[in-house]
Design brief:
mainly alpha
Length: 196
C-alpha cells in the first residue's frame, strides 16, 4: 500500500495535470480570498480596534475625572476666612472655628440652623406698627450673634469641648426660636390691626 510518490509521478504524471478542470484556479482564488482577509478587511479590523481602544481611553479618563471630583468634593464653607502669610497679615487674628470645622455631623447641624434662621428672616413681614417690635428682636439677635462669635473664639483658642459645642448649638436654637416668636407676635399684631 505504501507507494513512493516519485514512482507514482513517473507512471502517471499527465493524469494529474489533466485532472484540473477549467476555472479551477478562479475557484481556488475565490476560496482563498474568502478564507484569508484582504487588505480592506484587515484595515477595517484595525480601525475597529482603534475605535475600541479610543473609547476605552475616553471611558477611563471620564471615570478618573469623576472619581477625582468625588474624592476632592469639599463643599464651600462661607464661614472660613482665607489667610495669607504676607508680612502685612502676620499680626492678623486667626480665623474663628465653627462647628463645621470639628465634624461633618456638627456642620450639618450648624448649616441647618443657619439656613433656617436666614429663611425665617426672609419670611418676616414688618408693618409700621410692628417695626418697633422687629427692631427689639433684631437687637436680641445681634446680641446672640456676638455671643456666638465669643463662643467661636473660645472654640478656636481652647479647642473643642462639650460645653462650648452645646453652647453654640443652644445659641443657634435660641436665635431660631426668637425668630419664630417674632413671626408669631407680628401675626398677632396684624390680626389685631385687621380686627380693629
Amino acid at each position: 500500500m505504501a507507494q513512493d510518490i516519485k514512482d507514482l509521478l513517473k507512471k502517471e504524471p499527465l493524469h494529474i495535470q489533466k485532472g484540473l478542470s477549467d476555472g479551477h484556479e478562479a475557484r481556488f482564488l475565490e476560496r482563498l480570498d474568502a478564507a484569508l482577509p484582504t487588505e480592506e478587511k484587515v484595515e477595517k479590523k484595525r480601525s475597529f480596534s482603534f475605535y475600541t481602544i479610543a473609547a476605552a481611553v475616553i471611558v477611563l479618563i471620564s471615570l478618573s475625572v469623576l472619581v477625582y471630583q468625588q474624592l476632592s468634593n469639599a463643599p464651600f464653607d462661607s464661614n472660613t476666612e482665607v489667610t495669607t502669610t504676607d508680612d502685612t497679615t502676620k499680626n492678623a487674628k486667626p480665623s474663628l472655628k465653627s462647628l463645621g470645622d470639628i465634624s461633618p455631623d456638627l456642620k450639618k447641624i450648624e448649616d441647618y440652623y443657619v439656613a433656617s434662621i436666614n429663611y425665617e428672616l426672609t419670611q418676616v413681614e414688618v408693618s409700621e406698627i410692628g417695626k418697633q417690635l422687629f427692631d427689639s428682636y433684631m437687637q436680641k439677635l445681634a446680641q446672640l450673634n456676638e455671643e456666638h462669635k465669643v463662643l467661636q473664639q473660645e472654640l478656636t483658642d481652647i479647642g473643642p469641648n462639650e460645653q462650648t459645642i452645646n453652647a453654640m448649638i443652644d445659641n443657634l436654637q435660641f436665635r431660631l426660636k426668637l425668630l419664630y416668636q417674632l413671626k408669631e407676635k407680628l401675626n398677632e399684631l396684624k390680626k389685631s390691626e385687621n380686627d380693629a
